[in-house]
Amino acid sequence: MSTSPPEIPAPEQRLHPWSWLFVLLMQLRQSLLPLVALVVFGNRGDRSELWLTLGPLIVVVGLVAYSLLQFLTYRYRIGRDAITVRSGVISRNRREIPFARIHNVVVHQNPLHRLFGVAELKLESAGGNRPEAEMRVLRLDQALALEALVRQRGQPTVAATVTGATEPPPLPADPVLLRLGTRDVLRIGLLSDRGWVVVLAAVGAVMQFVPSGTVSDVLDNGGRQAFGYASHLHPSTWMWVAAGAFALLAFWLLLRVLSVTLAFLRYHGFQLSEQDRRLTVSSGLLTRLRASVARRRIQAWTLRESPLQRLFGRRHLGIDIAASTPGGGERRDLRELAPLATPAACDALVQHLLPHAQWPPATWQPVERRSWWRLCLPALVIVPLLAAGALWEDQPWGLLVLLWLPWSAFSARRHVARMGYYMDDTLVAVRGGWWHRWWRFAEVDKVQALRLSRSPLDRWLGTASLWLDTAGAGGSVALCLRYLPEAEARAVQARLGDALARRRLRW
């Protein structure tokens, strides 16, 4: 009787020889503020100058030692069905990561990575608050080959490429589903308000690091000088109006420039491709980010359309996937399939990735128009109270807040007019918004839980809302069928419940 020879395990591998340097830089970045505080505030009192000199030096030497130890103790082995990672300086950890459990692969390259020809690789799975493995850093060809290995679920040919070959064969080109050119990225910046991020961050930095007295003195002295110079010119009312309009125009142009700059930094070279039922997005000007996810991991879809995007015939297509959320609120997984594309292109992407679903739906089931007043109920309560408080303080101008009531009623009626839902054997979808429009949908097989909610107002009006939960789905738009008659909501819940009971959950 012949027996097959035992499988020889693949040898363990180290990270790139310069890996410790990148770990050190990361540690120094996290420790920068404490070191500055030690140098600045440690100089007060009668502390020894020798300690002030040696303290930061001891901290830096400790960080260098820690980075070297982390490099020397980090090992990974690529097996037939899983990746084994051994790490830890004091506490030793050994993690087995099956290829089938890896939901998202992120290849990250900042300018320093690109200078050294290396990349940072992160392997993420559903659940948890951190990646399953963080490899800082690998050679770029190793990182891409490992990404291909995860994509092909550990086929021996690719495994041999990563473990043994010194020069891996070129990876096959992925079919491109969407590519954004320079004009498209420019349009993203012009149609977005990303510049506010820089403005608010700058204001926050000034308020945090500059003493408040200094800021107030600069504003006070600058304002007095400006108004004093203007008063000597004896400007007319129209001159003041023109000056104000010019200031607003200059600020708007500054916001556009900042938005375009951020758009190029993030979306330059954006490309969405697909191979082996796995989607890959690569983008970035200075920092290149390459993220990939299996199509089956997509849990929910969101289409958005702002007024400016609607004016220029563009939409945004995003997805929610079953993957972890890195610490510190940092998102590096695949979230956008189309940062900006025509409605036809977005619909074509959905139809390609969901071939068995009908999108866009032919008809939407509306909600009752009479429920519009529920959306402006907070304004109906708060605005009269604000007006009454202004009158109580002898401020008649406070009555101007009452002008918000007709606008709130108009907005609520338009919103309810667009609200609706669609459901068939494959797809469940909701839509809403009229100024900022959105569409939210998911496959029925991805729904994990149903929840029928009835507030006291719902019980009084005989209505209900049906909430649908999918793994990893989140964001500002919920997959919820709102303001349905109770009988209709319970019928939809029963229909979906029967469908879920007969089907397997596609994870």
Q: How are the SSEs placed, and which strands pair?
A:
Blueprint: H1 19-30, H2 32-41, H3 49-73, E1 75-78, E2 82-87, E3 93-98, E4 104-109, H4 111-116, E5 118-124, E6 133-139, H5 140-151, H6 156-163, E7 176-179, H7 182-190, H8 195-209, H9 212-233, H10 237-267, E8 271-275, E9 278-283, E10 288-294, E11 298-305, H11 307-311, E12 315-321, E13 336-341, H12 343-353, E14 365-366, H13 377-392, H14 404-418, E15 420-423, E16 427-432, E17 437-443, E18 447-453, H15 456-461, E19 463-470, E20 480-485, H16 486-502
Antiparallel strand pairs: 1-2, 2-3, 4-5, 4-10, 5-6, 7-8, 8-9, 9-10, 11-12, 11-17, 12-13, 14-15, 15-16, 16-17, 18-19, 19-20
Features:
507 residues; 16 helices; 7-stranded antiparallel sheet; 20 strands; globular
Describe the structure.
The protein has 507 residues and is α+β, with helices and mostly antiparallel strands. Helix content is 43%, strand content 23%. A seven-stranded antiparallel sheet has the order 6-5-4-10-9-8-7. Helix 1 (19-30) packs across helix 3 (49-73), helix 7 (182-190) packs across helix 10 and helix 8 (195-209) packs across helix 10. The two termini are 42 Å apart. Residues 154-172 and 324-331 have low confidence and may be disordered.
Mean of residue pLDDT values: 81
Dominant shape? globular
Strand order of the largest sheet: 6-5-4-10-9-8-7
Distance between the termini: 42 Å
What is the CA-atom radius of gyration, in angstroms?
29 Å
* Poorly predicted tracts of residues: 154-172, 324-331
How is the biggest beta sheet arranged? 7 strands, antiparallel
Helix count equals 16
Briefly note the structural class of the backbone.
alpha+beta
Strand content: 15-25%
User: What is the number of E strands?
Assistant: 20
| Approximate helicity band | 40-55%
